[in-house]
Amino acid sequence: MFGKEKEKQPGQRPPIAEQIEVEIGSQTTMSGQIRCDGSIKIDGVIEGGSIESTGNVVISNQAKVMADIQARTISIAGAYKGNIVADRVELLAGGRIWGNLRVYSFLLDEGGFFRGTLEMQEEAPAMPFPEEQPEEAIPVEE
User: Fold this and answer.
1) What range does the domain containing 109 cover?
2) Which residue has the higher pLDDT, 12 or 35?
3) Which residue in 132, 67, 141 sits closest to 99, CA to CA?
4) pTM of the model
């Protein structure tokens, strides 16, 4: 806006966040397996199967997805049901998830709905509180 914008060199690809390799349009209903090295944007309906991406998966606010997903980052503004394995999941306002998530990072916007299990893949940090030692039982004589 205030500075000079970088000019693209011939053959230079934009950063992966800007690359949408696969786009499923709002008038599309499908099922099956999708594998992609770039990012995937879903505006339509996926009724089964799986999605694998080394990039990002974006589920827009009108999308409905019922499939397992494995990707780097998954942003959900629509409806999703299934199992996710990802570095990061972003459940945006209005987004809904029914399923199981295995992630390193999870963002829940106000207005998002989540029902399922969330498993953080990273090692748990050290507990900052001392562990309580069980008190020794006092023997009772009869």
Assistant:
1) 17-120
2) 35
3) 67
4) 0.75
Residue-by-residue DSSP string for 31-66: EEEEEESSEEEE-SEEEEEEEEESSEEEE-TT-EEE
β partners of residue 89: 74, 106
Asked if 99 and 116 count as a contact pair (C-beta separation under 8 A), the reply is yes
Q: If you search the block for the tokens 């409806």, which residue do you land on?
A: 79
CB 93 within 8 A of CB 107: no
32 found inside a domain: yes
What is the number of domains present in the chain? 1
* Whether the predicted pLDDT of 86 surpasses 60: yes
> What is the per-residue pLDDT for 134?
63
Name residues whose C-beta falls within 8 Å of residue 99's C-beta, 6 or more positions apart in sequence: 80, 81, 82, 83, 84, 116
| pLDDT score, position 121 | 87
Residue 127 lies inside a defined structural domain of this protein: no
pLDDT digits (tens, 9 = 90+) for 92-135: 999 999 999 999 999 999 999 999 999 998 766 677 777 766 66
Query: CA 14, CA 85: separation in Å to the nearest integer?
Result: 26
Question: Do 65 and 83 form a contact (C-beta atoms < 8 A)?
Answer: no
